[in-house]
């Protein structure tokens, strides 16, 4: 009888876990796919535009990693207010989150303003920097729209309005895929805007998304309430809490991407061939790792909702459900990587690659090892998300930052450069850090779960 009751209790929770996870997966995967398609469109431009796109990519990646890290706090507080079943608290979180985006938007503007000086000081060609800076300056218009769009999507995902977020993401992706090409290359008598066309497409799609989100939130949350003045909901304590929860995530994310940039430089010391191998591995790793990194987003939302309900059992059940989802995907993705690594590598590099047969074999082997590593990614990302959902944002930061700077970077330097293993050293260092991170995150979650007292 007790077993039957547990099954009745956990099946609806599993459906909810799957619903939240699949929504996070669709939004993340379509964003990544849209970026990959944009890169393919840009590859048909002239050499200066392609070179400038590399500088633009590095600037925007750093900028958005920091901003989205700061906005993780919106997800946590929104999920907690949903678990508390307090609609007025949810509205308060929404209003304060929108105010919170104002200082967050200033970060990319500051980075872009000084980006040309930074690139020139690093010895980049002046004409390429000038081209990149022109495009980046236009993208300042898109930053507020992109950050608002992300804020609304995180708030609604945590409030269990996954359907509207997924629909808007699909709509944005559809417009980007078809409009981006024509904005860049033109059509018939329309010559296109070149690299600027990519930014114009972002501005248009983000503007449409923000208008949809504002309309939905107004009718769903604001219109039905009896609040006379929404400005009265703006509270310094809530804003400070958003900063307090967001800063550790931003530090963690920016540190990881900074260390990765250093690692690329280290691999570059080994030559063009090693960089080419690393690029192949990196592109496929980004695609196949996305379903596992999404476990963190889903874990933060689901654990945050359970934390708001003051229900430890729900946090534990959602975590186990996410691990189960991760195992199922691991079997499928690992099988694809192990059985199709030759096809994947040769499809990417083409028939006229500079890589030798031995280097292609090494690349295939490293890609297979990345597939096996994913079993540890399941524990790493799931426990990290659940820890954040329980409002322990500092532990994941300490673990990730310390491992990145004191384990991954030294190991990569020794293995890739000193010992001359190149990209093999990078993959081995990555596996070591992932295993240690998974173990430490798992231990920290168990300790934090025991210490929670409602």
From TrEMBL:
<keyword id="KW-1133">Transmembrane helix</keyword>
<feature type="transmembrane region" description="Helical">
    <location>
        <begin position="170"/>
        <end position="188"/>
    </location>
</feature>
<dbReference type="GO" id="GO:0042910">
    <property type="term" value="F:xenobiotic transmembrane transporter activity"/>
</dbReference>
<feature type="transmembrane region" description="Helical">
    <location>
        <begin position="422"/>
        <end position="441"/>
    </location>
</feature>
<dbReference type="Pfam" id="PF01554">
    <property type="entry name" value="MatE"/>
</dbReference>
<feature type="transmembrane region" description="Helical">
    <location>
        <begin position="324"/>
        <end position="345"/>
    </location>
</feature>
<keyword id="KW-0812">Transmembrane</keyword>
<feature type="transmembrane region" description="Helical">
    <location>
        <begin position="135"/>
        <end position="158"/>
    </location>
</feature>
<feature type="transmembrane region" description="Helical">
    <location>
        <begin position="242"/>
        <end position="272"/>
    </location>
</feature>
<dbReference type="InterPro" id="IPR002528">
    <property type="entry name" value="MATE_fam"/>
</dbReference>
<feature type="transmembrane region" description="Helical">
    <location>
        <begin position="365"/>
        <end position="385"/>
    </location>
</feature>
<dbReference type="InterPro" id="IPR050222">
    <property type="entry name" value="MATE_MdtK"/>
</dbReference>
<feature type="transmembrane region" description="Helical">
    <location>
        <begin position="200"/>
        <end position="221"/>
    </location>
</feature>
<feature type="transmembrane region" description="Helical">
    <location>
        <begin position="49"/>
        <end position="72"/>
    </location>
</feature>
<keyword id="KW-0472">Membrane</keyword>
<feature type="transmembrane region" description="Helical">
    <location>
        <begin position="93"/>
        <end position="115"/>
    </location>
</feature>
<dbReference type="GO" id="GO:0015297">
    <property type="term" value="F:antiporter activity"/>
</dbReference>
<keyword id="KW-0813">Transport</keyword>
<protein>
    <submittedName>
        <fullName>Uncharacterized protein</fullName>
    </submittedName>
</protein>
<feature type="transmembrane region" description="Helical">
    <location>
        <begin position="284"/>
        <end position="303"/>
    </location>
</feature>
<feature type="transmembrane region" description="Helical">
    <location>
        <begin position="20"/>
        <end position="43"/>
    </location>
</feature>
<feature type="transmembrane region" description="Helical">
    <location>
        <begin position="397"/>
        <end position="416"/>
    </location>
</feature>
<dbReference type="GO" id="GO:0005886">
    <property type="term" value="C:plasma membrane"/>
</dbReference>
